[in-house]
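Appendix B. Raw example, untouched.
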Amino acid sequence: MENHAPNPSVVPHFVSRKSSRVMIAAAIAAVAAIPAGALLAQSPAPYTVVETGQGFGRLQQAVDAIGEGSGSIAIAPGMHRECAVQTGGDIAYLAAEPGKTVFDSITCEGKAALVLRGRGAKVSGVIFQNMAVPDGNGSGIRLEKGNLTVAQSWFKDSQQGILTADDASSVMIIDKSTFTRLGTCEFSGGCAHSIYAGEIGQVRVTRSRFEEGRGGHYLKSRSRRIDVASSSFDDTGGRETNYMIDLPDGATGQITNNWFVQGESKENYSAFISVAPEDRANSSDGLLIAGNDARIAPGVDRNTIFVADWSGDQLAIDDNRLGRGLERFERR
């Protein structure tokens, strides 16, 4: 199996900023809170509730056993053609052997392998692949309510990686995860993306990798706050992709110490990062975009913009390393 974990060597080390260090420390703390008890589970069943040791043959049975409570499900290695809908509680979905648990092809409610509308969910060490549904929004995870933490997971060869509904109280944290060959603009309902966050409270992405997009944006977020740090956006193998980061309604927060390369095959190459191109529903005052390295792929001859802004707010754009053909900022 190819290594799906983000390669730290891919992301350059820039001058450390206090805000980035604090953000990454917070992400690490959130990931550390994911129970490690799955490693101790010895049940022969594919799905084991860690706290009780009870095993189940179907993922939905294990989710229903936890119900409105809190618990962890250890998921055995192998190919899983299963899906589940979480309607309550706080549940951790944990690969017993990280990187060897694969959810393939099967979706619930025509949405995703995991449809989440409980109090909260955590996912660690899981691979999601080949998710496709008739409306073009097939995802590894569909977050409809509550908070979500994802760590060391891989989303690939699907219409979308993670898609959320609108929940102003939701916080989504993603750390050390990879998003490969995702997105599509082939359906009448609009484009799908590697990650598409609706109108939620906050999106935090750290130490993660986006690559080989197949349409849409790599990260699109309507959240009030966006924090993206120490991640890589490698578009050299992309096909008909759009922005690296799209904030259609604007946002506060930071985009710091990331690595961007724009490839040749673009549906829209006009900018790397867009701020409020659709609406100004969120303030973007103070949005920090700093310490990033942005390039156009070798052999691609074009001019473009690093940050395109429609918000009219006061952005903080500083200390970014920009390659040939890239202008720092354009107000539109």
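End of appendix B.
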